[in-house]
Specification:
single chain, 326 residues, mainly beta, Neuraminidase, 2 domains, four-stranded antiparallel beta sheet, 20 strands
Length: 326
């Protein structure tokens, strides 16, 4: 996102229910087992299918699953669906639509893919997400949604109608409906724009591009999902800023305060990759975007790129992204 918003009170409660706000880290148990297919694991020999060995529960297809790094449905994922992608605005040429860029979370480097040239006038990217086919979906500040190739940044118009259910501008992120299965849903969070209107959590369906409003929430976050079926949001306007795990009805299930991030937000983006959170943040006084890496257990916040030289307004990562950082 690339809009200024007003900082709000400490850790806003999301949703309208009475679900307990469980805070603090949750232990992630995603270790590769010593149970490689074919090694003392013949079907019917003390390990029948379905007995103490359910698919996707600590027994991925291969113990050396380097592609998806313990993502159980790795075969559904093309290579283009694995990295983090970001959209960079062109501060030297405000009329340009910006650049699609690949971010390597392991080497902390950026690689430009191409200039965006979507069929829209006087508008620039606002947020983005990436599906399991490696396709980027980019929302412009005009409210238009475009389908963008992560290979060459080519762009196609969609039949999406802006403003449905009050969602004119929003952050977005795909998450799996159930871990171990490829079905996914795009969750969106927004309203008229950051700091304007009542923020809501909703879903955007494919291929009909219909919006369903689910609940009101307490801020204007960017969103990211995981291969474990979790939905996460980054709230830069909270005091202190917060990364939160949300239920499908907008309740806060887990909260990570990221107090190291300072300054009134000007542009921000968010992605989950390798079991870590990646925050792309520019304050109103920063000359370019900073990149932060947030650990979940134990909770740590580290500024890994203090001066990127880029003005990042959106980030997207698919549910094919690895869940372990190697």
């Amino acid at each position: 996102m690339k809009k200024t918003l007003v900082v709000v009170g400490s850790i806003l409660a999301l949703g309208c229910g009475d679900e307990t706000n469980e805070k603090g880290p949750i232990q992630i148990n995603n270790q590769t087992p010593n149970n490689t297919a074919g090694q003392n694991n013949t079907v019917g020999q003390n390990n029948p299918v379905g007995q103490n060995n359910p698919v996707g529960q600590n027994n991925p297809v291969s113990s050396n699953n380097t592609k998806g790094q313990n993502n159980p449905d790795d075969l559904f994922c093309p290579e283009s669906a694995r990295p983090i992608y970001v959209v960079e605005a062109d501060v030297q040429n405000p009329e340009a639509q910006g650049t699609l860029v690949r971010f390597d979370a392991q080497t902390l480097t950026f690689a430009e893919i191409g200039q965006l040239n979507c069929p829209v006038q006087d508008a620039t990217p606002f947020s983005m997400s990436v599906d399991r086919a490696g396709v980027a979906w980019v929302l412009y500040d005009s409210g238009d949604l475009f389908k963008v190739s992560t290979t060459d940044a080519s762009c196609e118009a969609t039949s999406y109608v802006p403003g449905q259910s009050g969602f004119w501008l929003f952050g977005m992120g795909f998450t799996l409906d159930s871990p171990g299965f490829p079905d996914e849903t795009l969750y969106i969070a927004g309203s008229d724009g950051p700091g304007s209107g009542t923020p809501r959590l909703g879903t955007l369906s494919f291929p009909d591009f219909d919006v369903t409003s689910l609940a009101t929430i307490g801020g204007w976050p960017e969103m990211s999902g995981t291969a474990e079926g979790e939905l996460w949001a980054f709230f830069p306007g909270n005091n202190p800023p917060e990364v939160a795990r949300l239920s499908r009805s907008g309740q806060v299930l887990e909260s990570i305060q990221v107090g190291r991030i300072e300054g009134q937000p000007n542009a921000w983006a968010f992605a989950h990759w390798g079991g870590k959170f990646w925050l792309f943040y520019k304050s109103q006084t920063d000359t370019s975007t900073r990149v932060y890496r947030v650990e979940r257990d134990p909770i740590t916040v580290e500024e890994v790129i203090p001066e990127s030289g880029r003005y990042i307004v959106g980030a997207g990562v698919s549910t094919c992204a690895p869940t372990i950082f190697l």
